[in-house]
Amino acid sequence: MEYNCGCISLVSMEKHCGKNLIENTLTNRITRSVIHVCILLFTINVVYHLSFAPFTITIIFFGLLLVLVGILFTNYKKQKRNLMPLTWLIFITSGIFISSSLGLFPMNWPMIVLGSIAVAFIVVSTIWFRKDILLEWKKRFH
Fold this sequence. Notes:
Oligomer: single chain
Structural class: mainly alpha
Strand content: under 5%
Number of domains: 1
Largest sheet: 2 strands, antiparallel
Strand order of the largest sheet: 1-2
Helix content: over 70%
Shape: globular
């Protein structure tokens, strides 16, 4: 069944984009855009042999993490579908923090703050949102 919204068909847009339109939320688009920006910053850092990327990328991830947590906590019942981008971001930031702890990246104050916020949100979310997170994971990986 095809539903036309203006001049763009939702079915053809879903086929064109390759993603389900249900997951195309504002938080998902913001997360993907910021991750692409960080990848570009890292590429510029590697190509031009600069040293600003580890410091800058951790500050950007910290800001994104605070924005997504703020969006989630403002209206939790409506924002439950936005748990997956936040969960993926938590895993990415935890991975960056662990790799920084192992010495792959420099350990500076943004990295410490990013890791502590990620760990704090993991603890809070497992206490408060355990059922919803498990439900989202079951829907995601059925």
